[in-house]
Design a protein that fits this description.
2 domains, eight-stranded parallel barrel, four-stranded antiparallel sheet, globular
Amino acid sequence: MADLAIEVNGMRFKNPFLLASGPPGTNGKVIKRSFSLGWGGIVCKTISLDNSKVVNAAPRYGKLHAHGHADEVIGFQNIELISDRPFETWLDELADCKREYPDHMLIASVMEEYRREAWHEIIERTQATGIDGFELNLSCPHGLPERKMGAAMGQDPKIVEEVCGWAKEVAKVPVWAKMTPNITDPAVPAAAAIRGGADGISAINTILCIIGVNLDTMRPMPTVEGYSEPGGYSGQAVRPIALRHVMQIARACPNATVSGMGGIESAEDAVQFLLLGASTVQVCTGAMLHGYEMIEGLCNDLSTFMDRRGIKSVREMVGKSLPYFDTHAGLVARQADAKREHAGRTNRDAQTWQGDIARETKTLFTD
């Protein structure tokens, strides 16, 4: 029977499915419930030292439906900020979760301003709760750019390297850096994070978007007092983009672990991320749409997939498809080589000699 457990950066996950940072891990109560249902790990909602500057709006979500199928959500937008709960409350709840579920992997997502002392403080105080690892949120696409937080950091490789270095100066547990997709080449900041000392990369955060415009009111959505702002796009429609980012990061940073996310709603979705270099996968929007209980189906279906193909461990799948990418010029050259090989095969004896030996001999001469 397939073994779903996997060890990553010294952390042992019971299965490769993690709840991603966001509403699914918004407090200790839901974290505990998720552990009890069987999730392999949880990245809590992003926390910061000063929650007083975090004010969420409502409504803050928008859905993109498939045409003619109002019940099928293919895209999802949020304008949600990081946690607005007090830092001290988070410290108490994280410690409580680890006391009750010591063998479950709890990763703290943290985000701070561009100050070394702030990053030192949040890392040192949070890791004292017993959490198993950190995910540095360098990628939130829409919140707190005026404080140079989130994607405002993640879009600058020099800052990414510097902040990862600050975290690693005091971290005693593994550190992952979460990447923004709102850039040209995802390998550049990912490589900077690794230079700074990050143990792994998480990718991707949401893609900056406008989910649509209400044609009755002619106001952008989600609409707050008649107004809106671009937000983070997620859901199954972003999966092809997320797969491309994970592939490029895995190829560019072969010695770093990758936690992949973006539109995962089934075991088959997850396997694609594993094959492209991810060791774990994260689910956020999928859990919000289908409930925490989806973990049972994810694990059962992944086990079935592996058993049918004789795959004994998750580790066997990680990066297995990476060698099969090439440049366009490389594809053209490969196709030319294949045509030449095929042409050579057509000149073999079985095709050349059909009975009219004199005529057939003449075809093999060259003047």
